[in-house]
Amino acid sequence: MAALIDAIDVKRKDFFEIEGTPFYCLDVEVSTPTARGGQTLVRIKMRNLLTQAVFDKTFKAGEKFKEPDLEVVPSSFLYSDGEGSHFLDQESFETLTLNESMIGNAKDYLLEGLIVKVHKFNGNPIGLELPQYVELTVTYAEPGAKGNSASGSVTKNVKVETGIEVAVPLFIKEGEKVRVSTETGEFNGRA
């Protein structure tokens, strides 16, 4: 039987299950009352892992959640087609398919062979977790304009191999690899 987690023990980045649905804790706030007999409340900002919906909900401190039957498996990205995006489980070597709603904006960072963590709930793939940074090749970059670059914070937009645009320093040229944050989509250095 799955272990039970008290609402007050839920921490940021924890997984828990409510009424058969897995959730991911984005943020948690505990409100302790000052009056005697008041109830300690826990406000959790959470993401439904099946629908990707994000919302806040308040629970009493003693409420209990099940630990979800959630498995995180390292998988490499193979390709995308009309059915969805396909990944190869690095442990069992089975092909896992995620549809577009499960992928979300992660498709902006997926390259063939990229290792990601696929989340499986009750044995079925439901979503994925990207690495913090990905290395992408610049496919189009305009030459940097000379002039006001004394501050060092002048940037230009370049297009990378997945098709997204990234703001980078002026010295980045076409063909170079850049490291991009998968959370913010921002340039993080040369690769």
Summary?
This protein is mainly beta and 191 residues long.
Would you spell out the secondary-structure blueprint of this structure?
Layout: E1 4-6, E2 15-18, E3 21-31, E4 41-48, E5 54-60, E6 64-66, E7 70-81, E8 84-89, E9 95-98, H1 100-103, E10 115-121, E11 124-129, E12 133-141, E13 155-160, E14 165-169, E15 177-181, E16 187-190
Antiparallel strand pairs: 1-6, 2-3, 3-4, 4-5, 7-8, 7-10, 8-9, 10-11, 12-13, 12-15, 13-14, 15-16
Pathway: Protein biosynthesis; polypeptide chain elongation
Protein name: Elongation factor P
Pfam families: EFP, EFP_N, Elong-fact-P_C
Q: Going across the major beta sheet, what is the strand order?
A: 9-8-7-10-11
Mean pLDDT: 90
Query: Rough shape?
Result: flat
Structural class of the secondary structure composition? mainly beta
CATH class of the largest domain equals Mainly Beta
The major β-sheet equals:
5 strands, antiparallel
Radius of gyration: 21 Å
Number of helical stretches of at least 4 residues: 1
Stretches with pLDDT under 50, minimum 5 residues: none
Number of strands: 16
- SSE pattern, N- to C-terminal: EEEEEEEEEHEEEEEEE
Subcellular location: Cytoplasm
GO cellular component, one term: cytosol
Domain Elongation factor P C-terminal: 134-190
Keywords: Cytoplasm, Elongation factor, Protein biosynthesis
Structural features:
191 residues; mainly beta; SH3 type barrels; OB fold (Dihydrolipoamide Acetyltransferase, E2P); 3 domains; 5-stranded antiparallel β-sheet; 1 helix; 2% helix; cytoplasm; Elongation factor P; Transl_elong_fac_P/YeiP; Rib_uL2_dom2; Transl_elong_P/YeiP_CS
